[in-house]
Amino acid sequence: MHRSRVLGVSAILVMSGLLAAVLPVAAAQTQAVVGKVIGSHGTLMVAASNSMTVYTFTKDVAGSGTSACTGGCLTNWPALTITAGDTPTGDATVTGTLGTIVRADNGTTQVTYNGLPLYFFAKDTKPGDTNGIYPNWEAVVLVAPVQTQAVMGKVIGSHGTLMVAASNGMTLYTFTKDTADSGTSACTGGCLTNWPALTVGAGAVPTGDATVTGKLGTIVRADNGATQVTYNGLPLYFFAKDTAPGDTNGIYPNWEAVVLAAAATPEPTVVTATPPATSTVSPDTAPATPGGLPLLLIALSAGLSALLVVTRTARSRR
């Protein structure tokens, strides 16, 4: 009895082993990538494990099953890998085809997107970095950025054409303590209460009108996560005490309005002297004879002279 039970258990174990050998083991699904809004790039693909941006290499051939990045290239552009046999998945923003290749150089399983291997960039040090957007290297854009007109130019008094917010026409300012292209703002806390940031929706690309000839961009504020608009690398702000479009109360020590075009210099007033009237009398015309009372006096004088001559002549004959 006991022996038959042992034989029965042994038979079950043998059959289980045979079935395990015959039936395939379902591959484990691993969420390898997700979408994340990064600055003005839109929604980019990042690794689910650490939120770092992932890239594709233009020298790779989609669907080839190989990677053209080896040796020193792979040191600078490490592969996004998963456990052998796992199936990579993504979130709802990842609408293309995820897959894998087995690398010929080291045997690891590298994740692919639409047939192209995915890589990190060694000089990206934190989530949100996109230093790997480089010649021959591209970030994977899952949702294109939305363009938003954030600023425009407006002539304001004697200041010339100043930058104002497109949404409300209010004057914008820069802070001299900010550092261009630093990706940060030096105005926080109470400063930010008095000088609110000009912001747009996450992932939006700010644009301006024809008067805005510099570079518009965005930063993600460390204090509240808002996406603040920048101009030539400097964050843009309102001033809380500006209450109507055209106000420029924020021109203050350490704060400057953004002058897009200097005020026009008035043209000098030219006073033209009036030339003397031109005579219409011909040079051949004889001078006019004096008339009126002067002519009468001349006649009387001539008559008197003649009378005196006659009187003297008569006396001399006597």
Query: How helix-rich are the residues, as a percent range?
Result: 10-25%
Termini separation: 212 Å
Mean model confidence by pLDDT: 86
Number of helices: 4
Strand percent estimate: 25-35%
Q: SS-based structural class? A: alpha+beta
Shape: elongated
* Cross-sheet strand order for the largest sheet: 5-1-2-10
| H-E string | HEEEHEEEEEEEEEEEHEEEEEEEH
Number of domains: 2
What is the number of strand segments? 21
Query: Ranges with pLDDT <50 over ≥5 residues?
Result: 285-291
Q: Main sheet? A: 4 strands, mixed
Walkthrough of the structure:
The protein is of the alpha+beta class and 318 residues long. It folds into two domains: 29-143, no CATH class; 147-261, no CATH class. 18% of the residues lie in helices and 26% in strands. The protein contains four helices and 21 strands. The protein has a four-stranded mixed beta sheet, with no helix packed on it. Strands 4, 6, 7 and 8 form a four-stranded antiparallel beta sheet that branches. Strands 15, 17, 18 and 19 form a four-stranded antiparallel beta sheet that branches. The longest helix is centred in the last third of the chain and has 25 residues, at 293-317. It is elongated, with a radius of gyration of 47 Å. The N and C termini lie far apart (212 Å). 25% of the residues are buried. The model is unreliable at 285-291 (pLDDT under 50).
